[in-house]
Structure formats: structure tokens, C-alpha cells
Amino acid sequence: MAFNLLLQSPYPWIFAASLFAGAALSALTRRTTNKKDPERARERKGFSAALAVALCVIFVLCAVFIPGAERLKDAKVLLFALIVTAVFFIAFRFRKAAGLPLLLLAGAAAVALVLFFRAVTAFTGETEIARLDVGEVKNGSMKFDFILPGRKAEALDMPGTLLGAEVKEIVFHDVFVFFGAKTAYRFVGLKSAEVKPGSEMTQEMRAYELKRPPGISEALYRFVEDNPWVLPGTKTVQRQITYVKAKPDTDYSVRIQNDGGVQITAAGPGAE
Question: Quick one: 68 and 136 in the same domain?
């Protein structure tokens, strides 16, 4: 995944280039007259600035020739470069006054992002997220086992004749791939419904939300969901709920598709 990111996204290259651009600006603005040996300090200053500029140019060229120049036309790339350059200029130029606070702030932000990503699940390609082992369907009620990967089956009894799955897809801007997956999902839970005779409308009967342990990760997800501005370029997309008519003695596979859509298909006994 990291290798593909370097091939497809300009952000890792621009991040590195901006880091050295900030270092070069810091070196060029550093005073040398107050040093014990000003001449030697000027030489070191010039060498540090030249080295940083050279490395900055190298990474910019990598961004041009590896992901492609077309990907650099986005104004967001320029904004990202300016922000990173400014942050590292301040961090290098004022190491004692601002370096440590910036480092602590960046560390706290990274930890918060890692905890946030624990509340969602990364996926690449079509992925099975649950199985529904339907046993009995009669008298407007469905009895089935709800099976999540790596967990024990949970016996559920829900009214209706239709079973549905609700998934939220989390789409991140390329820059946030540094901290996790570019695309992820959050399995919200199940819904049951039925279609009334003579009507084409699906009437929801009951919702079952996945049980999640309380903690920092869950609190962060709820906070970001309610305040999407906290992570610019990140959005939580409510996917359309997919229903399937439950048949007795049939296993169903709940899958998330490449495009983030949800599909429920018969995958065991009773499948046609």
C-alpha cells in the first residue's frame, strides 16, 4: 500500500519537499553575527541551506515524474505545501520556543487520528463484513444468527420479512492516507422491514445497531461525525441500506463493494 501511495499520490513527495523548504528558509534566516566564529557560521549556514534546497528540488522532481505533473495542478497540493513549509520553518527556526510545542501538538494529532481509525475498518476490493444464517421465517418474524468475522454468532429475532444492512463509507483525501486507509467503512448494523400488501413502499420495522465498547476511539468517531470540519477533506457517507427477502434455512453474505455499496447475497444452503 505504501509503495502504491508513492506511485499514485504527490503528497508524500510534496511533504518531503516542503520539509526541506522549511529547513532551507530556517537556515537562510539564521543570524551568524552573534556566533563566536561568524565566518564559519556563515559557511555552515550556506551549506545547510544549499543542501536543503537541493533535497527539496529532488523531491519536487519526484512528484513531477512519478505520480505525474497533472496531479500537481490541484490547488490543494499547493496549499498543503505552503502549510507544511510554514510549520517546519517555525519548528526549525524557533526550536526552543515553538519546536517542542509543535512536536507535542503533532504527536497528539497523530495519536488522535490513529485512535479515530480504530473505529473504522479499512478495505480494498470486495469484502465480506458479516454473514446472516437465517433459520425460521414465519408469522412476520425472522430468526437468524448474526456472524461477524472473528466473533461468536449472535442469535437475533427481528420482525418483518426483509433483512437489511447499513454501512457508512469513510472517504479520506489523499493527504490522510499517511495516517490510515484511503477508504474505510463502518458497519452500523442491521434493519428489518416488510412490504405491505398492495404497496411498493418498504416499511422499516426494527433497527439493530452493532454493540461497540465505549472508549476514546468511539468518542472520537462520534465527534468527527458530528463535526466533519475537524478533518478537512474527510467525509462520512451514508450508504443506501440494502435489503434482501429472507428465506428460511438460507445463509446470506453481507459484502461491501469496491464502490462502497452494500450487497447481500445467498451464500449457503438455500441459495439459488
Answer: no
pTM score above 0.85: no
Q: What is the grid cell recorded at 218?
A: 468511539
pLDDT tens digits, the chain, 272 residues: what are they? 445 556 777 878 888 899 899 889 888 888 777 777 778 888 888 888 899 999 999 999 998 888 888 878 877 788 888 888 888 888 787 766 665 666 667 667 666 666 666 666 666 567 788 899 999 888 888 999 998 888 888 898 988 888 888 888 776 665 555 444 456 778 888 888 887 776 666 677 778 887 776 777 777 777 777 776 666 556 556 666 788 888 888 899 988 877 667 888 887 655 55
Enclosing domain of residue 248: 121-266
Rounded to 5 degrees, φ, ψ at 234 are -115, 135
Whether residues 44 and 89 share a domain: the answer is yes
Structural domain count, the chain: 2
What is the CB neighbour count within 10 angstroms for residue 215?
11
d(CA 141, CA 158): 6
Q: Which set of grid coordinates corresponds to residue 202?
A: 418498504
Rounded Cα gap, residues 252 and 243, in angstroms: 11
